[in-house]
Amino acid sequence: MIKQLLRLTPIAAAAVTVIAHAADAPADAPAAPDAAASAPVADNEARALDAVVVRSRNRIERLQDVPLSISVVQGAELERLSAYGIDAITRRAANVSWNLGNQRTSSLSIRGVGKIGQTEAQDPSVGVIVDGVNYAYNALTSSFNFVDVDTVEVTRGPQGTLLGKNTSLGVVNITTRRPSFTPTADYTLEFRQRGGFAGTAAVGGPVVDDLVAWRGTFSVDRGQGDIENQYNRDITYTNTDRVSGRVQFLVTPTSDFNARLAFDLQPRAGETTNGRTVFTPTPATYANGSPNTAVDNATRLSRRWFSQNTGYSVGDYYAFLSNDNQRPLVTGSRGASAELNWKLDGGHTLTSISAYKDYHFDAVNDEGTPFDVYRNSGGFWNDYRQASQELRISSAAGGFVDYQGGLYYIDVHNEADYRRAWGNDAGAWFASNAQYNRLDADPAGRLLMLNSLANLATSYNSPVGVQEIRNKSAAVFAQANWHLSEPLTLTTGLRFTREDRQNAGRSTLNSSGSAPELNPDAVGTDDAIAQKYFGIPTYAALTAAQKQQVADAKAIRKSQLGVLFGQTQAEPFRKTQPAFVISPSYKASEQLTAYFSYQHGEKAGISQLVNGVSTLVQPEKTNAFEAGFKSALFDKTLVLNADVFLMNITDYQQSVRIVDQYTTALNNDGTFYYTSATGNVPKVRVSGLEVDGVYAGIANTTLRFSGAYNKAIYKDFSNAAQPMENGYAGASPYRDISGQPLAGAPKYSVNVGGDYRLPVRGDKVFHTSANVSANSSYYSDNALSAYSVIPKSALVDWAIGVGTQNRSFDVSLIVKNLFNDDTPRSKTWNSYSPAIPRSVGIQFAGKL
Asked: Whole-model pTM?
């Protein structure tokens, strides 16, 4: 998979060489020091911007010569602004975004594409590589800090003809700092508002001179969130609780062989991400003006069952969060990798990367009140494991042709259990108005209403209760650069991936709770029901009103249980899928390179069950066209790169409205019933313009800027789910949103960063840095509800400090969200997730 072309970030305007370790570089090759972090910018250094090199294509190449659309963020910039999470990292690159969810459901988008409803069996649209290891699961990046980072590179367009796993939209490649035989000991300590504390340490050096070196990186980040759970004030939204460690060893027994062994651990810890929801009154009318008579939470809380608690009211529901069963979402991960490099005769290098990674996730959620409605309103328990092996060979650069090729294999095993449990107040909560009025009429009815759901527990069908997923991918890939003349190079690449996707699942009743006699499949229990609830020996002796109460209690239970089914094997997805690239580039001068590329990529189909019925999802296919230039202007003080692009995607994988085959067959009344499930959108088109640049013509100052105009639309999508405002009687079960924008895809986005460093008082340096990330409005809901529009916004992070030029000590004031932007993170028609408010901290950093 291609390792990315550089779209510059606020690197110092110096001849910084970015070396991300790969095939033809020794494993002990350290990244060049970040001049921005260690010395002020001199006027003569500003002219070396175009000398920056990257490993965009798995070998050292000059930035301006690589025909790919890429942004790069340097680790030093992340450290200056304490930006360690994936969300903060992506706010510093062009046309890439992190889509809000919890630790399991968040996702990456490139060019506005990739905001999907996470299913466990689905590949990410945007790949993530960490130190050469592909992460085949979005959740592996979402709840951990990335510290001691060398570079973060973002490549746009299908990838896969160079290394790793194929992706259909792009890659985020994170490279950490490597072991070195030079001793080092760096640290940071940060104290923030709301009891926040973060600390990092990176130590290393030789173990055996010229033979074994090591590097250990350790991180802790803890702090309370800005919103308290009023039921349990020790739970706050969104708190931070992240501890991690990484140890690497470099072994160099000969000049022709080196090995890097790495081990990482993130112990299980809890962050309360779910439940950061502020509730608002449900609109009184639907989009067509008809009254909304649906039962909402305000209606439920007005029922006598709940209103008799005088300590809590509907007003409290809207005013603050009070979740009696909320628990932090627990995550943890472990990993190990071994990278071996052999230099062979003829200038070739053979590289092997073997890796293992696992991930654990456990969520216990609540409905948003202090009542005993849900013991768990739906929370996944996940155990994910992946093992991968890559073997590739690279020729020496230069000559008429240089090339790379290899083999790749990954085996993914994911066990998931979606649990739901109900409490003593659930029956009164979920009853319809008519059911509630009949059951609340007398003590027997109230006991039936309580027992209808009390202590019930299921592996709930959303999308499947229990899944056991096995995804295997095996690939062969190759890429060559044909140097047809001194200025003209043609890059060609090809990949074939064999996908084998299997999924088995079931949705089951795990506990019948307080009333197994009310189960839908209960047989011969009518007389027992009559005796238990009414003290009458036989069911036949009940009055019509009493029989109706029994029927109501059974109906409440049945409606909440949903679809139950035994162990079922979904139809597997098996297919050989191609990927390729054709990209000519022309070097008009030392200061200008133009290029064109055509890339094709495919994402595997999905083996899945929908209400117990196998429903195969077709593979997603992307054809991407791009034309751009890379330039160094004004005596090389300005690097300006730009491109225009067009991506045509067929069978885009997203939630769609489909016929519910289970319910249709069950009712067998001539009516088609519908449900929402992951499926295929026939056509999506994305086009736009991207600009990246760095200006270093001002002494002591570096300015980085990027911007994008991005038009991501559904070219053909006639079976989208209806938004909530279209829930009126007679509305179609689906709607045509062809021509409408994709959710999470702002039309305009801008990113500007600045770094100013001024020598003061001998060996001291005054410095200040800032990052501005702004975008236009967008939909936060896949159904494109008018209530889900997030308005345009701008987020500013800023730091100011002073330190020594040799970085032995530094102190900085760091402010996140400087102007306290309060733009919601997501919205529905009766709730929203509020912004994370301003946070101020002081950071101490240095070397020992």
From this structure: 0.90
